[in-house]
Each structure stands twice: as structure tokens, then as C-alpha cells.
Specification:
heterodimer, A: four-stranded antiparallel sheet, B: 114 residues, mainly beta
Chain lengths: 116, 114
């Protein structure tokens, strides 16, 4: 079974703090993703990485950065947390294949971040 | 623009059948996924359609019509544990890295009652 783990389930931070969210997958997947999930808006892609040190901006990258130094680990960084970044953050990973189901994304349990 | 629409909430009775619809307008289409998400948990993969027609998997089936930009998830013999959100997601245009972007709908919250 694919396992995607995230460093924290719940996190409380203050405005202006630097926040690190870590994600680790154990299936040697090439692709890793960071989403945020807000009521009524669904999952929105923040950043995507298709290889070590490679990244692509998603739909809402402003205020976030990412780091992928090792294949299994993908970090999301909030340089200066703001209250509008209070959300559920979900990490996902997928392999690369020629058929659609090979690119199924597997999600971690999520980190619920509250910025005060 | 890119848009995926699903009903916000549905209710159904244990043992019944429920159909959750999803309509989409996206730039590019390379398949449609359905995920299940229980409250406070990660989304888990349910089904994938890339060709028109019905894919059956036990109590769950998923249908796709590409010409109509339409899919549905059919849940039979509903159980209480099926109470969850169901997310429709379309694989659209490619990123420069070769990967097709996944666009999610807001999800349908299904409540199953005894």
C-alpha cells in the first residue's frame, strides 16, 4: 500500500511566523503535490514537483514556496503566515505512467493549520 | 475557463441507491477520477474513467460521457459508512513537466440515514 505521511495533523501558528509542512511518501513516486482544501472551494493546487529539485506553480502559489531535495520528501513553506492561509493542507504523490490509473494520486492525512 | 460542478449535499437511506452527478468544462481532458473523503481524513481513490461508458467496481459504478462533459458515481446498497464527501476530478492540460493537471470539484457531501 502507498503511504503518504505528513509531519503534523494540527498546527497553530501566529501571523508572520515561518511555517514548514513536511510530506513523505514511501512508494518511490516521481510526482508530489501540495493542495489546500477549503469549504466550498474544493482542493486547489499550490505547487507540484515532478522530480528532485523540480517544481511547477499550481493555481495558488502566492505566499508559498516548496522544496524537494530528496525524491521521497516534499516540503511546503509559508514564508510569513497570514490568517488567510488558515486551511487544511493535503499532500499527494503519484507515479508516472502511460495509462491514467498509473497516475492516480495518493493523499496524506492532511494538516489542519490555524494562523492566529 | 475551467469548471467542475457537483451538488453540495445529498441525503439517502441505508440500502438505497444514490447517483452523484458531475459536469465539467476544462481545457483538455485526459480522464476523470472519483475520490471518497471521510470527514477529517485523506481522499481515497474510487474510480477512473477515460472512455465513454460505465465502469463497475462492486457496489460503486462510474459513468462518463465525454461529449456531454458529464459523469456520475452510482452507489448501490448504501451503508452508513458511505457517509462521506465524494470528489470529482478531471485530468486536464499538461504542465511543462509532462504531467496532466488534476482539477477538483468542491465535492458532494453524502449523508446516509438508517
Amino acid at each position: 500500500d502507498v503511504k503518504v505521511t505528513q509531519s503534523s495533523r494540527y498546527l497553530v501558528k501566529r501571523t508572520g511566523e515561518k511555517v514548514f509542512l513536511e510530506c513523505v511518501q514511501d512508494m518511490d513516486h516521481e510526482n508530489m503535490f501540495w493542495y489546500r482544501q477549503d469549504p466550498g472551494l474544493g482542493l486547489r493546487l499550490i505547487y507540484f514537483s515532478y522530480d528532485v529539485k523540480m517544481k511547477e506553480k499550481g493555481d495558488i502559489p502566492e505566499g508559498y514556496s516548496v522544496s524537494r531535495e530528496k525524491k521521497e520528501r516534499f516540503s511546503l513553506i509559508l514564508e510569513s503566515a497570514s490568517t488567510n492561509q488558515t486551511s487544511m493542507y493535503l499532500c499527494a504523490s503519484s507515479t508516472v505512467g502511460s495509462s491514467g490509473t498509473q497516475e492516480t494520486q495518493y493523499f496524506g492525512p492532511g494538516t489542519r493549520l490555524l494562523v492566529l | 475557463g475551467q469548471n467542475i460542478d457537483q451538488p453540495t449535499e445529498m441525503t439517502a437511506t441505508e440500502g438505497a441507491i444514490v447517483q452523484i452527478n458531475c459536469t465539467y468544462q476544462t481545457s483538455g481532458f485526459n480522464g476523470l477520477f472519483w475520490y471518497q473523503q471521510h470527514a477529517g481524513e485523506a481522499p481515497t481513490f474510487l474510480s477512473y474513467n477515460v472512455l465513454d461508458g460505465l465502469e463497475e467496481k462492486g457496489r460503486f459504478s462510474s459513468f462518463l460521457s465525454r461529449s456531454k462533459g458529464y459523469s456520475y458515481l452510482l452507489l448501490k446498497e448504501l451503508q452508513m459508512k458511505d457517509s462521506a464527501s465524494y470528489l470529482c476530478a478531471v485530468r486536464g492540460h499538461k504542465f511543462s513537466g509532462g504531467y496532466n493537471k488534476l482539477i477538483f470539484g468542491a465535492g458532494t457531501r453524502l449523508a446516509v440515514h438508517p
